[in-house]
Fold this protein.
Amino acid sequence: MPVSGRAQEQYDALVVGGGPSGAACAYWLASRGHRVLAVEKKRFPREKTCGDGLTPRAVRQLHDMGLEDRLAEFQRFDGLRSIAHDITLELAWPEHPDFPPFGYVARRRELDQMVADQAVKAGAVVWQGAEAVAPVVEGGLLAGAAVRRTDTGTTEAVRARYLVVADVHCRYHHPARYDELLTVRTRILEAKNRILKFGYELFRQSDSKLLATGDTTHVSCRRDGRVTHFPEKYKAAFLAIVSALPDRSTE
Ligand SMILES: Cc1cc2nc3c(=O)[nH]c(=O)nc-3n(C[C@H](O)[C@H](O)[C@H](O)COP(=O)(O)OP(=O)(O)OC[C@H]3O[C@@H](n4cnc5c(N)ncnc54)[C@H](O)[C@@H]3O)c2cc1C
């Protein structure tokens, strides 16, 4: 992976993914005085497949981030209507000591931008159009990530003391109803000495329609955070599973 130059700045935390979880993480770290960079591969406002419903717990999180007034502009709802097998249940949100008894419907193109903006106001740096493409490993330690700017195509190493991955790697192909039976097929796509990549496929059982695909990459680390090889017995098991794939186990 060619990486041009070294990171000009050192951050306390590099957050990969500027969705609500990554941006909220960046907000809280920055508001506690930490130097944070969040990288988001898309540009806001961006669409995201979602029901757009915010539960009372989510509302509480957003209120805690100072977004109470902004949220009040959205459609508020006081409970859930659940429909299945000709039965309809209407359930009011319960009274709770910590959470409000209401939710909101907020479009993700607005919500996500709102949370990211709040992170910036708290002092975080947010790069849009910036994709983390590979880990940066220095002296056996995970030291950050190689970040590619999508407009220029340049890649630079960003070093940070902590790396938070909030990237949810999922592609949605077709919608499904909540009461449909689904099958999740998990495969090992790649097994190296220190890295394992799983692939997921979500099928509707009734017609085997592919609904969504995703993948996760797992890096083997010791308790002190040092990247290390997988124990032999696990590696042997992983390699047996992926024997049909090209052998990249020595990389
Ligand atoms: C059909 C559907 C309906 C749903 N309805 C609801 C609902 O009504 N209410 C609810 O609470 N939840 C709902 N969810 C779940 C909700 O969408 C997720 O829980 C939520 O989006 C997770 O937030 P996140 O920040 O972790 O991930 P995301 O919102 O997926 O954000 C991840 C971000 O990371 C970025 N990214 C990925 N890879 C990289 C990279 N390498 N470098 C830089 N950036 C990267 C992506 O561009 C993305 O912006 C629904 C999900 C689906 C699929």
Observations:
- The chain has three domains: 1-52+107-168, 53-61+70-106, 170-241.
